[in-house]
Amino acid sequence: MKAQEYFEKSYQIYEQDSKKKIKYDALEHSLMKADLCVHYGHLLNKLINTFDDAQDKYDTALKIYENILITTHPKLMNAYMIILSDYAIHKAYEKIIETYEKKDFKVLINNYTESQQNLANLHFLIGACYVSMEKYDEGVNVWQNAILYEKKQHLDQNLSTGIIDLPSQLMNRAYRKAFNYYNTESNNDLFNCGILSSKLFNYDDAIKYLKSIESQTINQNIIRSIILGDMYLNKEQFNSAIIEYHKALNQIETQETNDLLRDAINLLIIQCTDNNNKKLYELIQIENSLMNNDDTDYNTISMKVIIYYEIAQTYLNLGEYEDARLYSNQSIKLKSNYFSSYHLSLVKDYLLIAKSYFDEKNYNESLQFYERIIEIFILMH
């Protein structure tokens, strides 16, 4: 296989004397070797009877990263996500759990500020490993954290594709296994049955279970209301969804560290609202709450551009074209400054501006923005 041959040649170069072969400084040399080991291990993981070799490469990469990188560096956590995902394919559940339970790994999770969906998928995967080892309570507790991360995935829309793809067979098997465990006379845990029914897409059963109990902790109450809101949203029962999301918000307000989750729930409430004027009012409330936040981290910047775009879209729906363009341009400015002048998510903003000019019958201006969209697609492909 050609890919394996070239990875092997590259790896041999790094194993030789760096002074003879590579002129980079020692730090850069080490990081390049670690990157190679991750990608080489990922390839070996897909080949038959090479999982042990893949583990050796992964161990080498992690050792280098941990010696060089600070715990807030996303490269370290991203490497772990790739590695643990590959371990799951080979049913190395104990090794995944062992990694997750390390104190240093918990620090990595807490410091990770990139994709919320990656964090959610990581926790769904780890929960499935616990359940596969018949550690049901531990598994469901991890899944509860995953649900909270998943609700914040709207922040990921300015990122490229996620790192972790969940193995569907493992996940479905784990959900059913856990549901069968809790849905017995001896256990009869209605809260967990409700969570698991939602993951198995049994919306009516999830509502039935969760409506029949009161949760014991604030976190469980938040999760209960979020899932109920999601189930009603999926059933297009929007008023009921709004009621449940507001219940979740009331619980979230008691916790100072849940700003991102609060904003995510507010966006869901807005999604359930069919009155554009009411939507606009709620969106501007969120915008005002972000005014004092510095543009210093990805989540804050991402939240601002999302809100700017949603406000622009609402103004467009109301026929307020100048205001729509004003907010679209604010979104464009942030994305261009912090992501790229040719970031793919800019297409949405340019499309909105083009539509606003088209609706005003200003076809020349509209055409210019469609041409910008084509330019981005050409450069990105």
What does this structure look like?
It is a single chain. Helix 1 (2-15) runs antiparallel to helix 3, helix 10 (168-182) runs antiparallel to helix 11 (190-199) and helix 11 runs antiparallel to helix 12. The protein contains 20 helices and no strands. The chain is mainly alpha-helical. It is 76% helix and 0% strand. The protein has a domain at 275-381: Alpha Horseshoe (Serine Threonine Protein Phosphatase 5, Tetratricopeptide repeat). It is globular and about 65 Å long. It starts with a helix and ends with a helix.
Keywords:
Serine Threonine Protein Phosphatase 5, Tetratricopeptide repeat; mainly alpha; single chain
Q: How do you describe this structure in short?
A:
By secondary structure, the protein is mainly alpha-helical. It contains 20 helices and no strands.
Percent helix: over 70%
**Run of helices and strands:** HHHHHHHHHHHHHHHHHHHH
Oligomeric nature of the chains: single chain
- Bulk shape: globular
Helix and strand composition category? mainly alpha
pLDDT < 50 runs, ≥5 residues: 19-24
**CATH topology descriptor of one domain:** Serine Threonine Protein Phosphatase 5, Tetratricopeptide repeat
Number of strands: 0
* The CATH homologous superfamily of one domain: Tetratricopeptide repeat domain
CATH architecture of one domain: Alpha Horseshoe
- State the name of the first-level CATH class of one domain: Mainly Alpha
| DSSP summary: helix tally | 20
Give the percentage of residues in beta strands. under 5%
> What is the mean predicted local confidence, pLDDT?
86
